[in-house]
C-alpha cells in the first residue's frame, strides 16, 4: 500500500515539473517583460542599427519632431517631401503606423535618436508591422552614411537618388487611366475604367462569364482576354487567355499561333486609340488618359471602327489612331486633339500620334512663344514647326499617314480658341454661332487646290491622273522612300485661321478620317450632330461619346469601305468628360 502511495506522489511531481518547464518555455518565447519596459517610458532611444526595423511612413500631414531641428531635417527632407508618391496601394491593411525618426546623415555608431511618438495602441502579441521596400532603402542609407559620412554633398546625393528611383514610377502609375468602351457587337455601349493603382481590380478580364468587362456575345470565350499594367514598362498590356475565336488588336491576331492549344498569347502593349476585337463582332475601343486629363472644360467623344467586313468579307486592318491630350504636360491652358490615318500599315500613324503632341508641348514650353500665341491669338508657327519636326524625326520609309491636329487653348479670361493643321484627307470642321467652318484642306491628288499646287511644281498632272505612285494623297507624313522618288510629294501642312469659341452658342468641332467623309458631307454631318444632341440631351453620361457613336453608326449604315474614326468636341459648358475609376 505504501509503495502504491509513493508511486502516485512521484507521478504527480513529474507532471508538475513538466508543466513548469512548459510554462517557462512559453515565457521565454513571448518575453512579456518587453511590454512593461516600453510602457514605463513614453519615448525610447533608437540606435543606428535599429533603422533596420520595419517602420512605416505616416501621413504627409504628420510632423516629426527632434531635439535638434537642423540635424533632423536632412533625412526627412529626402523622404518626407515625397511621401504622397511613395505610398503603396497595399498600405491600407496596416493596423499600426509609426513615423520614421528624424535622423542626421552624420550619425556615428552608438548615436541615438529619440522617437517622440504616441504610445503604441492596438498592438497584439505576435503582430508584425509590414516591412516595406522603403525601409530597405533607409537601411542602405544608414550603411552608406557609415562608410561616407565625411562627404559634404552626401545629403543632396541621397535625396536625388530617392527622387529619381521612386518618384517617376509612382507618378506614371498614378497618371495612366485605362478606359474601355465596346463600340460594336451585342454589348455595344458597355464601358469600364481602371487605374494601375487599383491593384484589387487587376488584371482586368474581358469575357462572357465572370469578367470585369462582361460581353454577351456567343463568339466570346468565358475568359477571353485580360489587360494588366506592366510597371517596368509603364504600359498597359493585352493578353489572349487561350480563346477559341481569337483576339485581334487593330485587326492583327495576337492569340497563340496554335488556336486549338488554348495556350495564352504573348503580352502586347496597348495605346490610346487601339481597337480590340474579340471574336468577329465585339470591338472594344481603348483610351488611355493621364490623371491631369481627367477634367476638361468641354465634352469629348471618340468612336472608331475598322469596318473590317465592308470589302466582300475581306479583313481590313485598323490603321487609324485617335488621340488627345488636355492639358499638355506642364502647359495647363493648351490641349491637342488629333487623328492619324495610316496607309501601308499603322506604324506611321502611331509614330505621328505620339510625336505631334510632344513637339507641340516642347515648343509651347518656351514662355515667350506661349505668350505670343496668347496675345496674338495665333499658333500657326507652333503647328507648322511641330509638323516639320515630326516629319524629320519619323523613320517610316514604306508607311505614311494623313494627320489632322486641332490645337485648343484658353486665355487668362477663360476664352477658348482653336486652330487646325493637316496633311492628307482626314478633315475637321467647327460649328460656331450656327456657322460651319472648314478647318482643313483636302490633299488628295484629285482635289482642285492640290492639283494647282502640283501643276505649279513644273511637272503638271496628266488629264485624269488621280494618283502618284499608286497613292491618292499628295501630302502626308512618312513615306520617305516615295518622297525620295517623287519630289512633288509634300509634308507641308495646311493651317487654318484661329477661331474664337463662344461656349454659350453650342459650338462644337468634328474631326474624322476619310472613311467618314467618303459617305457623309459636311452639311449632312452638321445635321446629324444636331439630331444626335437633341436625342441624347436628357440622358445621363457622356453625351459627346453618344454623338460620336451615332455618327459612326450612320457611316456604317451608308456602308463606308474604309477605317472610320471620329473625335467630337462639344464646347458647351454643361458638357464634361472624366476618367471615372471604380474602386
Describe this entry's structure for a reader.
With 583 residues, the chain is of the alpha+beta class. The protein is 31% helix and 22% strand. It contains 14 helices and 25 strands. It has helices at residues 2-30, 33-39, 69-79, 83-86, 133-148, 154-175, 347-364, 367-376, 380-393, 448-456, 480-485, 514-517, 522-536, 543-557; strands spanning 45-47, 112-114, 177-184, 191-194, 204-207, 213-214, 225-230, 235-240, 247-249, 252-253, 268-269, 275-278, 282-289, 299-305, 320-325, 334-343, 400-410, 416-423, 427-432, 435-438, 477-478, 494-495, 499-501, 508-512, 564-570. The strands form five sheets. Strands 15, 16, 17, 18, 21, 22 and 23 form a seven-stranded antiparallel beta sheet that branches. A six-stranded antiparallel beta sheet has the order 4-3-13-12-9-10, with no helix packed on it. β17 (400-410) and β18 form a beta hairpin. α7 crosses α9. The longest helix is centred in the first third of the chain and has 29 residues, at 2-30. The termini are far apart. Mean pLDDT is 76; it is low at 37-139, 148-174 and 576-583.
Total DSSP E strands: 25
Task: Give the overall pLDDT as a whole number.
Answer: 76
Compute the CA-based radius of gyration: 32 Å
Major sheet: 7 strands, antiparallel
Uncertain stretches of 5 or more adjacent residues? 37-139, 148-174, 576-583
